Amino acid sequence: MPVQTKKVYDPAAPSDGYRVLVDRIWPRGKGPTEIPRDAWEREIAPSTLLRKWFANEPGKWPEFRDRYRAELATDIAAPVVASLAARARTGMVTLLFASGYAERNGAVVIRELIDERLA
């Protein structure tokens, strides 16, 4: 797979390729030099309103995914997602997230969207 998700607190690896933080808020407990990354694309993170509504409640995950996909289709986010998809065509892209829920976070939705574009 040319796109993977990884917790920002996990060590960087050469196999990560292009590392991009996709959270709106800077991860707690980490300074700017402590997170190896190539970019911070906060404009494609879930909106504050959506993030607070979701609150990592498992029952809200399907609706969160739908609402977040709508946000990712906006004029601001869509070009960034397209750029990440183009980059994934030529090498690994690692989407970094700080959430404690590896299966339910914005990076997972972005990865799904990019994988769909590459299929």
What is the arithmetic mean of pLDDT? 96
Q: How many domains, as an integer?
A: 1
Structural class: alpha/beta
- The outline comes out as globular
Provide the descriptors you would attach to this structure in a database record:
119 residues, alpha/beta, 4-stranded parallel sheet, 4 helices, 4 strands
Structure description:
- The structure is a single chain.
- The protein is of the alpha/beta class.
- The protein has one domain (3-118).
- The protein is 37% helix and 13% strand.
- It is built from four helices and four strands, in the order βββαααβα.
- It has a four-stranded parallel sheet.
- The chain is globular, with a radius of gyration of 13 Å.
Which secondary structure elements does this structure contain, and how are they paired or packed?
Blueprint: E1 3-7, E2 18-21, E3 39-40, H1 48-54, H2 61-72, H3 77-88, E4 93-97, H4 106-118
Parallel strand pairs: 1-4, 2-3, 2-4
Helix pairs in contact: 2-4, 3-4
Briefly summarize what is shown:
37% of the residues lie in helices and 13% in strands.
